[in-house]
Amino acid sequence: PYIKVDSLLRGYPVDTSYAAARRLGRPTVLLAPGLPDERRKVVNGWLVVDGRGDRDILAMARSRFANVRLIDLEVVRRGAGPIAAALRAARSTEMVCVVADSETAADLGALAAAARLAAPDVLPVGSAGLAAGFAPAPRVDAFDAVPGTVTLFVVGSRSSAAADQVRRLRL
Question: Is residue 47 scored above 70 in pLDDT?
């Protein structure tokens, strides 16, 4: 499983992550909301947008999780193995939220690879940037519904990009 959250952390990403991890029996949440293509990075546990610190992700996580850790860029840049080891080391008797720094798509790719290595204990939570590290989606110009099924799209953003995507789905 993968939990997609807004890269600006709008909504309730920490509460959603906590509830999903409990329901799925995943003791470790890897929270990596960076989206470098949109100039959204995570540095020292802070969401940095267009070069300015925007939100203290560690403080947000502490509002729900008793155990919060940071995997900084030094560890991230060492690759999937050291990240997976840090994820395993962060586990305790309570659920833990591990916030991960990221500045590049390569950082997010290493985090995704580490989550796979540390599975099944880790629930990855992030933006489209982290999701790309799990299964790069091919560009699709049209959506073909499977006959006899119902498809539900949940769009939780009022951004112009999301509105454009909804318009394209309706075509």
Answer: yes
